[in-house]
TrEMBL record:
Gene3D superfamilies: PurM-like C-terminal domain (3.90.650.10), PurM-like, N-terminal domain (3.30.1330.10)
GO terms, biological process: protein maturation
Pfam entry (one): AIRS
Family matches, as PANTHER family: HYDROGENASE EXPRESSION_FORMATION PROTEIN HYPE, HYDROGENASE ISOENZYMES FORMATION PROTEIN HYPE
Highest taxon of source: Archaea
CDD domains linked to this entry: PurM-like1
Protein name (Swiss-Prot/TrEMBL): Hydrogenase
InterPro entries given in the database record: HypE, PurM-like_C_dom, PurM-like_C_sf, PurM-like_N, PurM-like_N_sf
Length: 335
């Protein structure tokens, strides 16, 4: 039997093993689990709630903040307002009270920033892990019964992204000793200062109110290209991405060059991929510009027969494969 690699499991296994065993059917589940779908939507009490669960397994220094940000991002990318957070904190043997306090302070600070209540969870020390892990769950409220899915796009829709590629991966991997040794302490501090950029709640909130926005997807493991493939998969369509249009920060370029990584496949919370119905782009772009939110038009949704393609920085065309192990895990393995 083939052993699985580190990171999210391949989509083929997700479909065959996980998504085929989902308990009973429930008519109140409006959007359930699926490839690329960021959160479930449940009908309740005359409205709708969004539910999400996501662990932080790759970071130590920012694990509490990222647990709140990443789960809030997935709720917000549904067009919902994140409201309630639960955190399961798993600590390795030898952890101290100060380790726990640091994580809880981070969760508290990030929750207050986003006006989220921490309503429960679990905390333990276990020999089942070698570094702190926080498994977060977030519940949000859908506004005016309007929610957005990853699979809502159609051929002809334009593909956009906010901010830049690889922000989360840059923050996390700047802790790698190789980075401080080669690029210096000042560079590491600059990368760490990017942490607030991981939060995408504000841009998702704005985009959810735009009539021309047809889908949104928070960029996480697999980076920009993995996210693009999942948007196409969720909508049963093709997609074309021009990497020359994808913004990459200087810090991300430098870090990826040092570690031999692809910034377009690097863990990318901090960016949102979204699609816009052709003809609506001027209004959406104007709204983003007015709010001071950076964006780039990077591609287009095409018919399924046209495939899932990207043009690299040298102008060559390649197929976009299903997302595999994130570049962050490859860096850890190489280190």
């Amino acid at each position: 039997m083939t052993k699985m690699g580190i990171g999210k499991i391949p989509n083929s296994l997700l479909k065959r093993i996980v998504l085929s065993q989902l308990g009973v059917g429930d008519p109140d589940v409006l959007v359930g689990p699926g490839i690329g779908e960021d959160a479930a939507i449940i009908s309740h009490g005359g409205g709708e709630l969004a539910f999400k669960s996501d662990p932080i397994t790759g970071s130590v220094e920012e694990v509490g903040i990222l647990a709140v940000y990443v789960n809030a991002n997935d709720i917000a990318s549904r067009g919902a307002v994140p409201r309630w957070f639960l955190g399961c904190i798993l600590l390795p043997p030898g952890s101290s009270e100060s380790d726990l306090d640091r994580i809880c302070r981070q969760i508290d600070s990030a929750a207050k920033e986003l006006r989220i209540a921490v309503v429960g969870g679990h905390t333990e020390v276990t020999d089942g892990t070698t570094r702190p892990i926080v498994v977060g769950s977030m519940i949000g409220v859908v506004k005016n019964s309007r929610f957005i899915t990853t699979g809502g796009s159609s051929p002809g829709d334009l593909v956009y992204m906010t901010k830049a590629a690889g922000i989360e991966g840059t923050v996390i991997l700047s802790s790698d000793p190789r980075i401080e040794k080669s690029l210096g302490e000042v560079f590491v501090r600059k990368c760490k200062s990017m942490l607030p950029k991981v939060n995408v709640v504000s841009e998702c909130t704005l985009l959810a109110d735009q009539e021309g926005v047809t889908s949104m997807h928070d960029v996480t493991e697999g980076g920009i290209l993995g996210c693009a493939w999942e948007i196409a998969e969720a909508s049963s369509s093709g997609i074309f991405i021009d990497l020359s249009c994808v913004r990459v920060l200087d810090e991300t370029w430098s870090l990826c060059s040092e570690l031999g990584l692809d910034p377009f496949r690097l863990m990318g919370s901090g960016a949102v991929l979204f699609t816009v119905r052709a003809g609506s782009e001027a209004l959406v772009e104007a709204s983003l510009s007015k709010a001071g939110i950076q964006y780039s038009r990077i591609g287009v949704i095409v018919g399924p027969h046209e495939g899932r393609l990207f043009r690299d920085l040298e102008g060559r065309l390649f197929s976009i494969p299903p997302p595999g192990s994130d570049e962050l895990w490859r860096a850890r393995t190489k280190g």
